[in-house]
Amino acid sequence: MEMSVKELANLVGISVRTLHHYDEINLLNPSKISEAGYRLYSEANLDRLQQILFFKELDFPLKKIKQILDNPSFNKQEALQLHKKMLMDKRNHIDQMIQTINQTTKHFKGEINMTNEEKFKGFDFNKNEYEQEAREKWGRKTVDKANEKLSNMPKQERFEKENEMNNIFRSLASVNNEEKSPASEETQQLIQDWYDFLNDNINYEYSLEVFKGLGELYIADERFTKNINHFGEGLAQYMHEAINIYVENHL
To answer: In this protein, which residues make up the domain named HTH merR-type (predicted)?
Structure first.
């Protein structure tokens, strides 16, 4: 059952403006736009929004949340367990702060004496350790690890594979410069070549779902965008769109 932006805002308790902002930054795009121009949200959109709000509750910046959710290795079950762990620790931290407040109140009344250490018990100004844990699980290191097989090849073989890879990118940049549609037969054949190359040469299993997630990284991760656009201006966005079309056609 699809929901309008207003219905979703009322259900969750956030503003329509917030949902519009999430759409504008590609953090949460509606599943479709109605003929009248209204945003419509699917069940999958609701699941993603729940993840967004879990991470936001735990002080993750929106940019980091997008990188995590768009990563092809993101696992919802692992994320829920991480959320639970984080929230339980946060609850324990809040309980400790409340206890410190209660103790301080008694101290002011002269009922007890607090040491200087006790006055600051519960305060923690360290960086969010769980942001680092999430980054380890779903951040750039996962994609870096996927290139292990390529980097461990003998020099000549690696050179040949890198040249093959670069030729695919150059060909895609060429059809992009010719303003051919991402759905064109020539472009889709090159995307097929890229998909085959990844599965044949990279130490990672690229299912269609993972391949689509990789295409998301091309525009979500500045490092990928910069490296791909080195072959041609706007290539990262072009490949992102072409990969989405490829995946839709092969599901």
So the answer is: 1-71
